[in-house]
Amino acid sequence: LTLRKLTITKGRALGLFGAGGGGILNNGTLTVTNSTFSGNNATGFSGTGGGIRNNGGTLTVTNSTFQNNSAAVDGGAISNGGTLTVTNSTFSGNSARWGGGIRNNGTLTVTGSTFSGNSAVSGGGIWNNGTLTVTGSTFSNNGANDYGGGIANFGGTLTVTNSTFSGNSASAGGGIRNFGGTLTVTNSTFSGNSANYGGGIDNSGTLTVTNSTLSGNSANYGGGGIYNDGTATLQNTIIANSASGGDCVGTLSGTSNNNLIESTGANACGLMHGSAGNILGQDPNLGSLTGNPAYFPLNPGSPAMDAGDNATCAATDQRGVSRPQDGDLNGTAVCDIGAYETAFPNLQAAKTNNVGGAAVPGVPFTWTVTVKNSGAAAAAFNNGQVILRDYLPAGASYDTPLVQNVVNVTNGGNIACAIAGNVLSCTANAVTVTLGAESGQFDVAFGVTPTAAGTLANPTGGVCRADPDALVGESNETDNDCANTVTVTARVYLPLVWR
Asked: What is the C-alpha separation between 191 and 177, in angstroms, rounded?
């Protein structure tokens, strides 16, 4: 069964002897798309699944909204005992005893979704004792009276990648509480979460954290970033700026390496500065939280930059930028510590003609300049800044240049090109023009009519160059120039011989 553009409000189910599902009870295969579940309620002493109860079936939810649903026992929005896939959906204001947003004891995959303002006794966003995979999602301002403001993982398997936990709260594990389960966190950010123990993460199971950033979390009694009394391994991870409770409390495994923890001693989980690449007692110099899911960029000069371990770094950062990059521009690519990899654009320019390099006076040809960004970060030019400048030779007249073949360029229609005094200039006009990472590019084509025999090339002291004023910091500044030569040969007229 497939449901599209469905709105279910104020549905009610009395949960008795395994019943439930205030909006829908599913025992088969159900697909829900572009739908809204609001104000539904599963009551009674076994009320489960305020919006939907997936009772062993297969449920797929896409582009849907669950708000202000509730269940007396578990799964304020959805209770899952089968296979559940959630994509690009929003869960807000839902509540239950276990799993304010979702309770999972089956298999749950969450991608590109948001859980905000949900509440429960345990598992404000999600309560899991099955298998849960979270990718590219945000958990914000969820709350639990006991465990796991964002997620409570009780004996289950939880994998979190490229996600953000911010402003969640609980007694233990403001962001995530892992109790007797297996928790793997990669390329994720924890900010402003709070608890008595483990403001970011509270672990009493098996925990592995790789290339993640925990900043500005707090705990009343210990572990503003992480509180560990299980088995925990941290690699290439930042824990800093904890408002209370110290950054990391407990003992980490001996394979924990290349972490940056601002605290020292007992509040750094016993790590030693300089041992296994770990950096203690230093401010990571983070930028402001930005992006979606949100992350902390590294400011220039951050000690976390190029201080990771390439062998144990994640293949990309939270945004999908490949690792390692040469963040300090010293010629060697080493991954950064934390969820963010410092990357730079790389602008390149190429110039071609359509006559094979040979022309004659009075017959026009076309020069085309291609500007491309092949770097891992976008290249932005503010209003009035020059993107391309080409000093054109004398000995020809020039037509008005045309911008064409624009690919992955924000505000590409605002690239203004003109030729004045034999100088071609292309600037950002009125707004910021951004060439996207890896593939942002455009062409500038203009007609050229030679007026005399000779060589048409950039004059002495004049170049064809992308970013001629060096406004954009790049990973490679040596490939911004372009050159092309056209040889103009005078027409040869042979005399007519009569026989």
From this structure: 15
Could you check whether the bond before residue 297 is cis, i.e. omega within 30 degrees of 0? no
Distance of alpha carbon 296 from alpha carbon 248, whole angstroms: 19
Give CA–CA dist 218/245, Å, rounded: 6
Q: Which tokens hold the place of 427?
A: 């600037």
Q: What's the average model confidence in pLDDT over 234-240?
A: 98
Rounded Cα–Cα distance for residues 38 and 50 (Å): 9
Pairing label, strands 415-420, 423-428? antiparallel
How far, rounded to the nearest angstrom, does the alpha carbon of residue 69 sit from its chain's CA centroid?
30
DSSP code per residue over 67-106:
ES-EESSB-SSEEESSEEEEES-EEES-EEEE-SSEEESS
Is the pLDDT confidence value at 497 over 80? Answer: no
How much is the pTM? 0.86
Instruction: Tell me the two tokens of residue 266.
Output: 């007992």
Residue 396 has pLDDT above 90, yes or no: yes
Task: Report whether pLDDT(246) > 70.
Answer: yes
Distance (Å, rounded) from C-alpha 73 to C-alpha 347? 57
Q: Identify the helix (H) or strand (E) that includes residue 9.
A: strand 7-9
Tell me how far apart the alpha carbons of residues 16 and 236 are, in angstroms, rounded to a whole number: 49
Farthest-apart Cα atoms in the chain, separation: 117
Residue count of the chain, please give it.
Answer: 499
